[in-house]
Specification:
Layout (H helix, E strand, L loop, with lengths): L13 H12 L1 H37 L8 E5 L4 E5 L6 E9 L5 E3 L10 E6 L4 E5 L5 H9 L5 E9 L2 E8 L8 E4 L7 E4 L4 E5 L7 E5 L3 E6 L2 E5 L7 E7 L1 H24 L3 E3 L5 E3 L6 H15 L12 E3 L5 E3 L1 H10 L1 H23 L5 H61 L7
Antiparallel strand pairs: 1-15, 2-14, 3-11, 3-15, 4-8, 4-10, 5-6, 5-9, 7-8, 11-12, 13-14, 16-17, 18-19
């Protein structure tokens, strides 16, 4: 690259002059760059909108499930047992006594320095014999072989003093079905520590309806529909388990839905407003007049507030207000839920399902309406970027042309100045014509 010296002949600041001309030439490119920036801002806003709609779709997918409001609390009259209520539960109570706690069989050997044989068998409760073959009769090899087998027994070496150890054998599972025996070894018989047994409870103890229920674990699954009861200790007195509808939790489900809706509506509204400055100038936000944002708002709002089976959602505390958001009346919801829980649950699930259909369709990552709009904006940016690059080449060529033009001008001016100086010298050397 050559060295440019401004105005050697003309005295002009040609670099500044060229820069000024290039600024004028670059106006169309700057307009394109501004369009790129504005389009990128729109893409960011649409992506944020899509995230909120997708989050709403995920929430309503859960709320629309049949058991979304099947929420219950459980209480126990004793620390001997507790209950967990899940899907399919219903209000009610039951009394029982805890008569046994499930436990795993534990047996230990006498103190030994090594096992009698390296090969032996462990027989399960169902009579299945599992052959164990250790690498040697060392206690470590025996423990390793047992723990790597499918006998359902875990072994551990416990120090017994004088260089001896006792092997403790523990069934992997609690309950009578986890019992085992060891055969094929001439060592001393195992000493029982805990006997394998099932947990058991006695329903309606002391009545003609008395019934014993057993479990291989300390959890009695679905003792009542949808209710699991876990026992912790034997009880002499009856334990009363009570299952009650958790209306407070159901109310939170409804409130969370309304809060998520309002978060979306406020986001759209805040980005669609027009503000006025002190000088009277107005400023429009990114979604002002945008058809996609307006359509999203209308479709979700309609899904949330249209009647369900001829009944307005406002009957159970969900209603649209004049600002275009949704009000949630907890007291009204709880009253309706107490009067007719099935109807309120069905209505809320229907509303959630409608919202989910709309939100999922709008935010689908492949063919959702918002996704399609984002892709369209990204295509616009690609086109604009290509045009900006074309302008980069065009402006570079234009600058080179101007620089060459002004450099040529300086050369020509230099020649003219040289000729002028020569002519002046020649004229000054001519003889005078006034006779002196």
């Amino acid at each position: 690259m050559g060295i440019a010296l401004d105005g050697l002949s003309s005295g002009l600041d040609t670099t500044a002059l060229i820069n000024t001309l290039m600024q004028a030439e670059a106006i169309p490119q700057n307009i394109l760059k501004n369009k790129v920036s504005a389009t990128q801002t729109m893409i960011s806003a649409l992506q944020a909108l899509n995230t909120k709609v997708a989050d709403l779709a995920e929430l309503t997918k859960k709320t629309a499930k049949p058991d979304s409001l099947q929420l219950f609390t459980t209480t126990s009259s004793s620390d001997a047992a507790k209950a967990t209520a899940g899907s399919g539960a219903a209000p009610g109570s039951i009394d029982f006594k805890v008569t046994a706690i499930a436990q795993a069989q534990v047996s230990v050997s006498a103190p030994v320095s090594e096992w009698a044989e390296s090969s032996f068998s462990i027989t399960k409760a169902d009579g299945t014999a599992i052959d164990i073959t250790a690498d040697s009769a060392s206690l470590d090899d025996v423990v390793r072989a047992i723990n790597n087998s499918e006998a359902g027994v875990k072994a551990v070496k416990v120090a017994a003093g004088d260089g001896n150890y006792r092997l403790q054998f523990t069934a992997a599972e609690t309950g009578a079905d986890g019992s085992f025996s060891i055969s094929g070894t001439s060592g001393e018989a195992l000493i029982p520590v805990k006997t394998a047994q099932d947990g058991s409870i006695t329903l309606w103890a002391g009545t003609s309806a008395e019934q014993i229920v057993t479990s291989s674990t300390n959890t009695f699954e679905d003792l009542l529909p949808g209710v699991d009861i876990t026992v912790a200790k034997v009880s002499d007195e009856p334990v009363t388990i009570t299952i009650s509808r958790d209306n407070e939790a159901a109310g939170k489900v409804a409130k969370d839905l309304v809060d998520s809706l309002n978060g979306l509506f406020k986001f759209i509204s805040g980005n669609s407003s027009v503000t006025s400055g002190t000088d009277g100038a107005t400023k429009a936000m990114i979604f002002t007049g945008d058809s996609t944002a307006r359509d999203v708002n209308q479709r979700i709002l309609s899904a949330a507030t249209l009647p369900v089976n001829g009944r307005s959602p406002s009957e159970f505390g969900i209603s649209i207000n004049k600002s275009g958001t949704i009000d949630y009346d907890e007291e009204k919801f709880q009253t309706a839920l107490a009067e007719n829980p099935a109807a309120v649950e069905a209505a809320l699930q229907e509303i959630a399902a409608r919202i989910n259909t709309a939100a999922a369709g709008l935010s689908d990552k492949y063919d959702g309406q918002i996704t399609a709009r984002i892709k369209g904006q990204e295509s616009t940016i690609n086109r604009l970027d290509d045009q900006v690059m074309d302008w980069d080449r065009r402006l570079a060529t234009r600058r080179a042309t101007l620089e060459k033009t002004y450099a040529t001008m300086e050369v020509q001016l230099s020649k003219l100045n040289s000729q002028s100086s020569w002519l002046t010298a020649q004229l000054s050397s001519l003889p005078s014509t006034n006779g002196s």
